[in-house]
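# step 3/5: fold
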Amino acid sequence: MGLSEQDRNIIVNLEIEKAENTFHEAEANAQIQLWSVVSNRLYYATYHAVIALLVSEGLQVGTHAGAQNQFGQYFVVTGKFSLEDAKLYAKLISMRQKADYNCSYKTNEAEMKPLLPQVKNFIENVKAYLA
C-alpha cells in the first residue's frame, strides 16, 4: 500500500528539514576543519534532498545506489535537474565513501570548501522544485 498524499508531504518536509540541518552540520564542521566529517555531512545533505524528491513523486527508495539511479532516471534524464547536479551528487557519494571507509584517504579544505555553496544551491533547487 502506498503513502497518502498527506503522508508523502510530511515525509518530504521532514527530509528537506534533515537536508538543511545536515548541511548546517557540514558548515559547522568546516569551521573547525574536520574535512572528513564535512564530506560525510555534505553527502547526506544531498541524499536527504534527493529522497525528498523521490518521495514527492511516489517513488520507493531502498538503497543509496538506488536513490542515485532514480535521481538520474527521473530527474536528470528528464531535464528537471542538470547533469551538473548529478555529477555533484556522484562526486559526494565517492568522497563520502572514501572518507568513511578508506583509512588512508584524507580530504582537505581545498577539496571540500568549494562544495559547500554547491550543496547549498542543490538543496535550494530541490526546495524550489518541490514548491
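# step 4/5: annotate
The mean pLDDT is 93.
# step 5/5: archive (pending)
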